[in-house]
Amino acid sequence: MAGQGALLKTLTLTNNWLLSNMCCRFNMVSIQPQLASIRTLKLETKQKLKDLKIPEKPKKPLTPYLQFVTEKRKDLVKDNPNLKATEVIKKLSTEWKSVNEAQKDKYKEKYLREVEKYDNAILQYNSNLSQEQVRVLEEANAEKKKQKQKRKTTKLNKETGKPKRPLGPYLLYLKEQGKIRNISHNELLVALKGEWGLLSETAKKKYRDEFEKEMVKYEEELLNWEKKMFQEGHKNVIRVKTLESLEHPPSRIASSKSSKQ
């Protein structure tokens, strides 16, 4: 059973299935925005940023609420070591609501002072950047936005149950052989290396027919899912051809004329 599970994992990755479980932990106190965001950049862009020795960008000041979180979180965690990170934030959020306005005003005043300092610092920072540094930073920001959108799309697809593309003929063959031989996926890949190419067209037809059958079902389910996404306003996850047909459906008049002819 363990070998079959590992095999299926390999097959789905090979077939470009998006099965990653997006899990994000947010540490409001010690997070370093530049370092955190740079992890998603391409190696080429990372190298450019390193070569250009771009100075660290001034950090935005903490909002009144985040000041409160920073101030209270350490003691809360110390007194409640078994609390999960999400529970800590939830508890602090509840406590913030009970803070009196006079105390909140102190946090707000500090925030406004820090914003003024930040605005001056960011102006100075930008004025000291070379044109090449500005260009590379713009490239990096564009990449980060693209990666962020990709993560959002992956999360949306998972939450809304986007249909998964079926395994192709070759992967169906591997899956079947894995069950028959009951061996690990690594052993199976070694054992079956080149075997698919030696199969007759008649033998391959079985898997191709199964794939085509599953593809018909997949296309139908995908179209229904896309219609649902269209109704909910998630146009960015819909295929171009489907989006065009949903935004500009054939008119009833045109359909009526064509049927009469």
Automatic annotation (TrEMBL):
Keyword DNA-binding listed: yes
Keyword Nucleus among record annotations: yes
UniProt keyword annotations, A-Z: DNA-binding, Nucleus
Domain of life: Eukaryota
Gene Ontology CC terms, in alphabetical order: nucleus
InterPro entries (alphabetical): HMG_box_dom, HMG_box_dom_sf, HMGB
PROSITE patterns: HMG_BOX_2 (PS50118)
Residues covered by the HMG box domain: 58-126, 163-226
A GO MF term: DNA binding
Protein name per UniProt: HMG box domain-containing protein
Organism: Phyllotreta striolata
